[in-house]
Every structure is written in structure tokens, then in C-alpha cells.
């Protein structure tokens, strides 16, 4: 009788523990929902995250970058790439990250999370990781994905310059910028075939989802422009242009040249990006969440 009694006691104890855990989980869920619905968590940029939240997010980001960049092969940096990277850095990175003896612009100083200085980035990150961050950006941080706007050689040039930054003083930084020249213009090459997936990413990098509902693209619940669903079923664009891939790409690039009264801004979309964006929009359907 002793063994069955013990087995019964164990079952009762396990059931009690399970019920207690379930009750705790339900209570935690209700508390979380109350915080969520009550708006108790202050999202103002003047109120920082708790330190443990900041540390947790930062560590998760570091591990994620290391994992996703692990197989990237790094080309050998050359002096020409470093100088090209210096020019690109001043035009695209210095505004938020500053440089040796150069402060970020005022808007960047107030961003939350604040864009970190890159003067020692090469000591904290591997070159392949710097490439991954530069190319793909970081979610919910303000760091954009430069892979849409910069070519592969330009991305690696930025990485090459970041590798030089820890060794530059403020005068050395100014001297390098004085000799850094923009890349030379090369002969035009034929555009590749439209890439639907690249177009989806390009839509996010030109902030299209801030005004439009786009299937397959995460965005806010408030839209000032029409939803971009079932675009292929429309006979005309802006009520003026026949709906073709070329015309849609043109509308994306120069909307005010097509319809001077439109409030849609000209975003400086490249020809390739516009063609890719058009390819994506012409194949989306209402309710699609690919």
C-alpha cells in the first residue's frame, strides 16, 4: 500500500504544481494585458528604457548579427577602397554617428536609441558583421539598410574605412576627407530583370509603408495614401497612365511629373529600384501576407 500511496501523492503534487504554474501564467498574462491596454508603459523618447531592457536588446542584436554574418566572405581592403569609404561615410554616416572630432547632427543626438559612435566599431565588430549591419540595417533602431542605395563595392568600401577609423585622430580624419573623392562615373550597364523580393525590401527603404497599406509589408494602422492592394487590376495609374510595369515604375520615380497636383513626393527612387518595386506591387493580392 505504501508504493500506490506515494504514486498518488506524487500525482497530486504534480497536479498542484501544474495548476499553480498555470495560474501564475494566467495572472502574468492578465497583468501584461492591463499594462498594454492601460498605456502605463511610457513610450516617450524622453524616458529611456530600463537598463536591463537596453542590455537585453543590445545583446540579442549582437548575437543575431554574429549568427547571420557568419558565412560572409570579406574581400581584402585596399587604400582606394578606404578613401572611397571615407567619402561615403561623410555623406551617409557622419550625420548620425559623427567622426573623430566631429559631433553627430542635433537630430541624431536626440534619437532613442542613440546612434553609437563608430570610431571604435572595428574593435567591437568583425568586418563581415559591419558589412551585414551596413547592408541590412537594424530593426527598430533607426539604422537603415544601405544595401538598397549602395552597391556591393561601396558597401565594402564603407567597411574598409570603418576599419581605419580607430587609428585616426581628428586632424587625420580631416586630412583623409580632404583627399577622399567621390567614385568615378562608370558607363551605364543594362538593368537586371525586375526582382520582386528586392522590390519588397525597396518599398520599406523608401518609407512607402508610412503612407500606404502594402500586402506583405509591416506598417502602421494609419495611412494617408490609398492601399496598394490588387494594383494589377487597376486600368490606370493616377487616373492618367495606362497600368503597365514601365508606367508604374515611372509613377514611382517622378509622380509629380505625371500628375502635378499629387501630394505624393518625389523620393529619389532609382530606375532599378522603381522597376523592382513595380514588379512586387503588380503581383500582390488583397490579404497577401507573404
From TrEMBL:
Pfam families: Cytochrom_C, Cytochrome_CBB3. The keyword Metal-binding applies. GO terms for molecular function: electron transfer activity; heme binding; metal ion binding. Residues 80-166, 194-285 form the Cytochrome c domain. Keywords: Heme, Iron, Metal-binding. InterPro entries: Cyt_c-like_dom, Cyt_c-like_dom_sf, Cytochrome_c-type_DH. PANTHER family: BLL4482 PROTEIN (PTHR35008:SF4), BLL4482 PROTEIN-RELATED (PTHR35008). This is Cytochrome C. It comes from Pseudoduganella armeniaca. The lineage of its organism: Bacteria, Pseudomonadati, Pseudomonadota, Betaproteobacteria, Burkholderiales.
